[in-house]
Amino acid sequence: MGVVEAIYENGVFKPLKKLNLPEKRRVKLIILDEFIKDLDDAFGILEEDIDLEKLRKEWDRDVSS
Q1: Around Cβ 42, how many Cβ atoms within 10 Å?
Q2: Rounded to 5 degrees, what are φ and ψ at 35?
Q3: Residues 6 or more apart from 36 whose CB is under 8 A from it?
Q4: How far apart, in whole angstroms, are the C-alpha atoms of residue 12 and residue 15?
Q5: Which residues pair with 13 in a beta bridge?
Q6: In degrees rounded to 5, what are phi and psi of residue 64?
Q7: SS3 37
Q8: Measured at the alpha carbon of residue 40, what is the angle toward residues 35 and 44, in degrees to the nearest 5?
């Protein structure tokens, strides 16, 4: 799992860099712009900047154990 930057164009997400994934691999996308807006709408208290790098590390952390 990791973070992939992409452009949404003509109904398709296009990664900015080549990915090391097999064809037709199913993935889940998190749209950060909307995620942060939703947090702000829900809590209305996000006055300080969110550390996106820290947030990404938490998302990538294995929580299955």
Answers
A1: 9
A2: -60, -45
A3: 46, 50
A4: 10
A5: 8
A6: -80, -15
A7: helix
A8: 165
What is the Cα 56 distance to its own chain's centre? Answer: 8
For the whole prediction, is pTM greater than 0.85?
Answer: no
The residue assigned the tokens 């900015």 is 16
Alpha helices in 1-65 (DSSP H): 32-43, 52-60
Structure tokens that stand for 27 in this block = 């993935």
pLDDT digit string (tens) for 4-50? 888 999 999 999 999 888 999 888 887 777 666 667 676 665 555 66
d(CA 13, CA 31): 11
